[in-house]
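Notebook entry, structure prediction.
Reason for the run: the old model in the group folder had no record of what sequence produced it. Starting over properly, with the input documented here first.
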Amino acid sequence: MPGKALIHDYPHRMGGHCGSGAMRDLLHWHGLGWDGPPGEGLVFALGGALGLSYIRSGELVPPLYLVGRGADFEIDLPQRLGGQVQVLTTDDPREGWSWVRDEIDAGRPSLVWGDIAELPYLRVKLQMSRHDIVVIGYDETAGTAFVVDNDRAEVQEIPIDALARARSSTSFPQPTRHCTYRIAWPNTLPAIADAAAAAFLQSAANMRDAPKASIIGSTEASGAEGLTAASELAADVQSWADLPKDDVEILLFSLGAFIEKAGTGGGLFRRLLAEGCAEVARLTGDLATADLARTASRCAQAWTETARAGIRHDLGTWARVDGVVLAASQLPELEFELVKSLESASNSLVAAVPGGVS
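New structure, fully documented this time:
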């Protein structure tokens, strides 16, 4: 029998990043926080999700891919906060829908992946499969589902069929496979210093110990991850002046979009990190974490300057390439300083906690 259910008064706000925006809403819904509901920056920082991946490939559209977060934020954040996570995937649309329906029927919002190109309210052609949305209701008689998305302030009513297509995408960076996160949140949260110390250390490890371009799926692609990715990007943009003008225009636009527009919160996620670290510093009084917030802010600004240099309307193509080269040249050193600051803040928070942080 067709069913109908809706979770009322879901505390949704727009966000800069789909994952941390969704998790912020979910924490608020479950009444969890340290000094009221957490902000999006704090949620991102506690996820330990800072990362960096850079790919160039003619098989991609656009031929450049840049992302500043790690892959497992949606798992690591709840687990760090004392929760449990099941990641459910299937190629059977009926099974995938049953997971969402069961969660909503139980009064729990359902966190899922959806390809942005298949979500009608976003009105985009670019396909990107790993976009977090939260389903809070459905009406099977009307054939509609109710979705909240960091990119829209209001609840979106969309066809269940469109949601099914978004959840069965085979687009880059990986098939969605009706991915559903079944999260059991804790009743209370751990001390903020404990959670932050572990998260900062994980983010540093993501950058310092990243595998070499593990997300590259083709022998024709080139790229890197972690600190190496910052150096590779800074070196690569120097070669753009040798490319055809039309190709360069696509690269310049794409670089700016990936840094500022592609759900990064601005500054390739570094601005969210800075906001979160400033909140941890306020809550703990830790001076090293306050220094980390400033370092992350400087790093975010450098990424923003790189993006802006590529899209300046008052300059021609080659002048913009020169601007990108200059702005990107500061990224490797700033990223290295950011990693050192993450490690210092983690150590400082551990030292401030009696018995240390496990």
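Summary: The chain has two domains: 4-14+84-184, 192-352.
The old model has been moved to the deprecated folder.
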